[in-house]
Request: fold
Amino acid sequence: SIFDEPRYSPLPSELTTEIFHFLDDDIYKYVWIQKIQDFQLADDIYNYSINPDKCYEFEEKINQAMNRFFNVKSEIVWGAGEPDFVALYKPNFPDDNNKIIFTGDAKSTKNQLWSINPWRLKQHMRKYDSQFTILITPKYTPSAKKDIEDEKIVILSSMALSEMIRNFIKHEDKPNFKDFYEIIEDNLWDDISDKFYEKIGQLYWKTI
Reply:
């Protein structure tokens, strides 16, 4: 009633502060859970790459990794005669005038990849009008690398990809594929892992 003791009514700005203070803990927990899940992606990429029983999960994790680039859209394509993923890179994002398609192949192995079938990978490229294929595997033999000579195929180690994703997450970066595309373009039919490490160092390991 009007005879009751007057009650304190906070100003709108004070009320907003109280609400956010109440939510702070939940938001903090959500952010850190998301961060942990993101770092798990980096771990999973390598761990699944050395476990052939997790080959499909390996493909899924690589697809997630490719989609971390703000100007790449990657999709898994499963089935006979298909690549493991097809990606669309937009150098002038968000402009759609220039589009570069590339395909990917994930090879999980407990030991080393002994051979690569370039004919099959070229079939994938022709089907999707792909400019190149990235083959991602933990380890391979010299003869496997020789299989891709003079082909528009590059090898990337799962460890290098894992390290790349780890740094994207650590530095809360939504990276540009341009830096890595240039490496691929200049090093077809080669292992680009060391050059990826070098680029990661230039982007994130600068001395203070």
About this structure: The first helix runs from residue 12 to 49. The mean pLDDT is 86.
